[in-house]
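Morning. Coffee machine broken again, so started the prediction first thing and wrote up yesterday's gels while waiting. Chain of 185 residues, entered below exactly as on the submission form.
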Amino acid sequence: MIKKNSALKRFYWLNVGMDFFQDPAIKKLRKTPHGDTSTCIYLKLMLSTLETNGTFLYEHIEDSLEKEVALRLDEKVEDVKALFEYLIAHNLLSKNPENEHVYVLNEAKNMIGSESESTQRVRKFRAKALHGNDDVTERNGIVTPCNLSVTACNDDVTPCNETVTECNADVTLPDFIDVLLKDGK
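Came back before lunch.
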């Protein structure tokens, strides 16, 4: 039996658009006291939730959510608290209605993408097949052309002689037919 690797590689990304810093909510965040730090913490928080699609769990390791997130991200508690107040006020952070210990980064879940290693491999293969194998063509410039002087058919074949001019005197036609009939049984 073949054992499958249960820990398949998966690649994640945060699709931060070119206009991320032009978004009014991010512009306003950057203008708050310690706004650049808050923006950096927000990006770190989104990156830390890639595998959970923009959600994170408050595990009560610390006595407050802000302290726990500050611990995980190696940031100051005051900065995380200020960020959370801003994110909640602008509907960028909310509690999961189904589980009060799970928090959702509302915009992050729309910015996260992922694919498995095999999906990535297949996508690259298809792209390569679509665009052709340019590397091989460029490197293999000298190719022997096909032999255009090959004769299509052999015209020198003697046609079948349907009349027998010589025969074996020892074998008569009736004997030959008998041999054929015996072999056919």
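The chain has a mean pLDDT of 78. Going to sketch it on the whiteboard this afternoon.
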